[in-house]
Specification:
266 residues; mainly alpha; 11 helices; 0% strand; globular
Length: 266
């Protein structure tokens, strides 16, 4: 795999552990590394990050489904379908927009989104999520809100290369009143088709034409994430998850400002 491949595997492994500790994929933590350390252009880093996110989600889905009650999951199909519809449409649009936008504008957008996600992580660490169900009980209204929220999630996924759990889970818990454990499973099921749409469009535009990037970055980082995620999930029972999430949120904000702030004018 080579020295660089080994480093990328280690980074994927560490990020996988971090994601497992806080119950998320950790894809947002990879972006500053891809751009700031590996020196990839943002337009190159985003599809790569999305490909690694796909591997992480695919590895996580069977584990989560095995622990989820099928009957409870079935009750949430309308909401899940609504969010998937909105997310897939937005992911397709976002992946197309990535080709046309300037490098400085993309860096600015990524930097802002990462800072916002970092703030969300800190907020969740300070005020743990509690099922609230703030949306009206009307099914048509809940469906329309689901499509709208899905649109936001799809754009974030395609522009950052993330699964979007940082936004999906709070939306399901606070907006729809889903139990937190079930929201984690629903999040993965919503993310999967969203990621596939974005990746398909990136593939058509030749985002993975350079084979060295795929074999030297995507594959080792994906393998690292697949191995690190379960370990992080196991360690979550022994470490203060809220503190870890707050620290990672602050790290994300700092790295986003440091890496992408400097590229906004390039």
């Amino acid at each position: 795999m080579g020295n660089r491949g080994a480093v990328n595997f280690l980074l994927g492994f560490v990020v996988g552990i971090a994601g497992g500790l806080i119950g998320l994929g950790g894809a947002e933590l990879r972006l500053p590394y891809l751009v700031g350390v590996l020196g990839l252009a943002a337009k190159t880093a985003v599809p790569i990050n999305l490909a690694v996110s796909l591997a992480t989600v695919l590895a996580s889905v069977p584990v989560r489904l095995a622990k989820t009650d099928t009957a409870a999951l079935a009750e949430w199909w309308p909401v899940m379908v609504a969010m998937i519809v909105g997310a897939m449409i937005a992911a397709y649009i976002g992946a197309g927009w990535l080709r046309k936008v300037s490098g400085a504008a993309l860096a600015r957008a990524i930097g802002i989104l990462l800072v916002l996600l970092g703030l969300v992580m800190i907020a969740e660490a300070l005020v743990p999520l509690v099922p609230a169900g703030l949306l009206p009980s009307s099914e048509p209204v809940r469906f329309l809100f689901g499509v709208a929220f899905g649109g936001i999630i799809g754009l974030i996924s395609s522009l950052l290369g993330v699964a979007g759990g940082e936004v999906i889970i709070p939306t399901l818990v606070i907006g729809y009143g889903a139990p937190i454990a079930l929201a984690g499973t629903l999040s993965l099921l919503i993310s999967l088709p969203t990621i596939l749409v974005g990746l398909t469009r990136y593939l058509r535009t030749g985002a993975f034409a350079e084979r060295a990037l795929f074999t030297g970055v995507v594959v080792p980082m994906a393998l690292g994430a697949v191995f690190g995620g379960p370990l992080g999930g196991w360690l979550a029972a022994y470490v203060p998850g809220a503190l870890i999430k707050a620290l990672l949120g602050m790290l994300l904000i700092w790295s986003a400002w440091k890496v992408f702030g400097e590229r906004c004018h390039n």
